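Quick question about two entries, pasted in order.
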Amino acid sequence: AQWQSLVVLGLKSDEVGTAVSIVSSGIPRGDELAVEEQALPSLVRDARQCHTSSMLWLYHKARSRPGVIAPDEQVAYWRLLKAHYEKQSDDLYRWTSASLPEPPPAEQPANVQRLVAEIIVRC
């Protein structure tokens, strides 16, 4: 289908946020998993650049599909998202922070700290 060519072309883009836009754009039923698998490296790259929408997508996807990212990465994104939402003055952000479910425990807390430190400098 023509939309598959557009997905491939879009995922070649280095523009931060393109991948999350693609996976959130209403992919035809039955093709979501294939597109998500193609987009995963770009989503992780963008999340590591402190793109909150990419972090949020990966965080929630990891909750519904364990193994999509490492547990320590999920914990790191949760910490970064909580900090981002809590420093906002908007009630919606505070509500989003309060409703963000806590992740499972980290496997290696030092790894979480390293990931948070690596990402936070880009925020």
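Here is the second entry:
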Amino acid sequence: MLRFILLFCLNVILVSPALADEPNLQANRTFTEAMQLIRKAGATYDTREAVRLLRGADKSLKKIVNDFPESTIAVQLVTNQFIGDFDILDFRNRIRSLSCERGSYVEDFLAEHGIATATGPTTDACFLYRIETLLPALEHPITIARWDWLSLGVSYHLLGQPDRARDIILPFLNALMTKSKVNDSQESLMLLARAMMLINEKAQAQKISGRISDCSAKLYNLMDMTKQAVWNANMVEARQYADQARDYVEDNQCSWQKSIVAQALKMTDRETDGKKIYDSIEGDQFTNVKTENRDESTPPELAVAAAAMGDPETAFSVLRVVMEQNPWTISAVIEELGKRGEYDVTEAFINDLKGLDQKAEALATLVDTAVKRNDLKRASAIMAKLNALRASASLPDQQALILAMRARAEKDLYKDERWRDTMQTALNTADLVEENKRSQVALPLIATLAYIKTGNPLLD
């Protein structure tokens, strides 16, 4: 019996290392099979065959993580580490690139990765993938909110890819909510709150909003919430946010920020109250602009508020001062005046704009307001001006931006899918843009897709 026990213990000692190393051996074998499939996929011109091979490789990599989680390779895959020269993030990007391929076999595969929408060169999934390739890579560790990537995440959410949206947005949320070095970044918190709100994560948006203490950032944040509630046709909630903005201004003795409150009140069907707030704005900045003694530190929101309150003369006077540093104000002012039917003075201002991209966005905005006022004749005439702009554009970045605005206006005016061909042309042109200018093109493309999807300027 003693001899039997000794032999049994000796066998356990000899066999145990092999048993302990078995998960690594199995993982290594499966990983080798996956690499062979990936290399074969890269060596074929047949898209269907490449998809079949990549799908097999993907299945093998998932098997490593699921069946051999304690293996070294599984840990490396889960933590996005290089394994030799293999980069799991590049592999996932390669899979997403299939969004631009047609075929049910592609769609079946991509559905496993949360891309349940149609695929092909003129689909939402392809557009989003191509825009993502235009953005400069994220720097790690994350220390500030990047509005370009957050906007992309919002667009992925809006266009039916919530999993990809989470992959993009959660690292920002985790970094900005836990790292002390960025806790005091009011602008980062405001941008993150806006992104969370736009993907309907209201609890998180409110939690982030509670950490915003700067008067300007707080008012912008409340204005964002007001807009989102209006876009969702929740006027009760919108009025609550507008009232919070009014109370905050009064309690904290804010000055020009009253212009944001005036807009919020007008947006919630209380224009008379908004006009009282607007008329009460004091301070040398606004007074100087009204008397043509212009100050370049003038807050840009004053131009938007003046337009919203039906004061085009003051709106354009302020706009001419602030638009170089704050180009977003151009379309915001145009939208407010367009809603009021102030077309003659607005088109005259647009004609004087020097920047072709600014002019294109202003014209696209004016098409939208004309369509909403059911003035289709005017909308068509403005559309003709927008179409003619491309002939004046000599640089790829200008052409790409003009085409993006044309796609947006086509969706407004024609209510069909012709905008997709225009958007594809815009992306083809964007691929020709110099590397250091691509992000400037990517943001308007993202905003255009969000606008077309929702009918609202969520990301402008």
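Reply: Residues 363 and 385 are 8 Å apart (CA to CA). The mean pLDDT is 89. Hope that helps.
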